[in-house]
Structure formats: structure tokens, C-alpha cells
Amino acid sequence: MPSEKELNVNLLDKLDLLERLEMADQEGGYEKIKQQLAFEKKCIERKLYQKPPLIEA
User: Fold this and answer.
1) Which pLDDT score is estimated for 18?
2) Contact indicator for 55, 35 with CB cutoff of 8 Å
3) Is 3 helix (H, G, I), strand (E, B) or coil?
4) Which of 26, 28, 38, 52 is the most exposed, fewest CB within 10 Å of its CB?
5) What is the dihedral of CA 36, 30, 11, 45, to 10 degrees?
6) Residues 10-43: b if buried by 16+ CB within 10 A, e if exposed
7) Which of 4, 37, 31 is nearest to 18 (CA)?
8) Cα 57 to chain center, whole Å?
């Protein structure tokens, strides 16, 4: 079970993501949002597949 701190960090990350998408919408609409989503996907994949893993088994 994640701690409260871990949950808060995850929620803050999601809030940051939403704010970046809102800014992309204000700056350029649909195409800018598509570009931002592609960038966010790459960032998430980097975190998922980084070496060494974030937690040790």
C-alpha cells in the first residue's frame, strides 16, 4: 500500500500533466494538444523503463 506521500506525489504529477495540456489547448488547440500528448507519453515511458528501477524488489 503506497504511503500518503507517494499518493500525493502521484496526484501532483497528474495535476501538472493536466495543467500542461490546458496550456497547450490555449496556445494552439487540437494540434498543439496532440503534440503535447506525444511528448507526455515519451516522458512516462522513460520513467517506466529506466534502469535501474525506481524501487528494488
Assistant:
1) 92
2) no
3) coil
4) 52
5) -40
6) eeeeeeeeeeeeeebeeeeeeeebeebeeeeeee
7) 37
8) 24
pTM above 0.85, yes or no: no
pLDDT score recorded for residue 56? 62
- Cα distance between residue 21 and residue 32, in whole Å: 9
Q: How far apart are CA 28 and CA 24, in angstroms?
A: 6
pLDDT average, residue stretch 45-52: 80
Q: How many residues does the chain have?
A: 57
Residue range 44-48: mean pLDDT, rounded: 86
List CB contacts of 32: < 8 A, sequence separation 6 or more.
24, 25
| Cα–Cα distance for residue pair 21/35, rounded to 1 Å | 10
Which value, in Å, is the radius of gyration of the alpha carbons in the chain? 14
Closest C-alpha to 32, from 41, 43, 20: 20
